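Bench notes, afternoon.
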Amino acid sequence: MKRLLVMLALPLLMAASTPPDYARQWAVQLPNADAGAYRIELNADVFRTKYSDYQTFAPLPGAELFSAIQNVGRARIKGVEADASWRPVEHWRLEARGNYLDARFTKINETSTAYLAGDPIDLVPRYQFTVSAQRDFRWLQKDVTSRLDYSEQGPQVYRNRSSGDFYHNLSDTIERLDFNTSVYWSDTLTWRFFARNLLNDKGFTNPYSLIGNGVRSRPRTFGVEFSAEF
């Protein structure tokens, strides 16, 4: 157990001494079939990206009623992303993946009035993650895979200071629970039974509800799909 905790903490310990501009990746794999509880794969990235001419949709200088894609200034994005998978016992697979981002403008062009230095970049969620459980088994002499996924996405921001400080909105935190079962009926035919958005999350997936263009998650949905090869 100590060995496992040390390997999980290794990327974070190394990140503490990473220089300001960086892109680092660590991969830990223990594929030995006899590894028991150590049959785990872990990948982690720590990164920082700078943009000298960040492009976004913003009001045109001197014509604030009109907007277009333009260079608004400098920006930087830094964050951490990781994914891990684990086979605790035969026929079971557990997975987790996610990221955390800090995306902000660092300098704004004098002709742009939509943002200030330090404002978060539009449409970049601060975090998102997914955890999954999968089981493979046999049914009626057919191979079957069942999978359950829970995911969460943090709010996205939308802002336009040229219209005033009030012109600011956030999307909702989106939580989804999906389940699907695939039955491999033959080498050429696969049936899939699915249930999507079991939590029936109806939140706004983007921050545009401020201007009447908000998009909500699709409602709870059940169905059957099939794929065939000829």
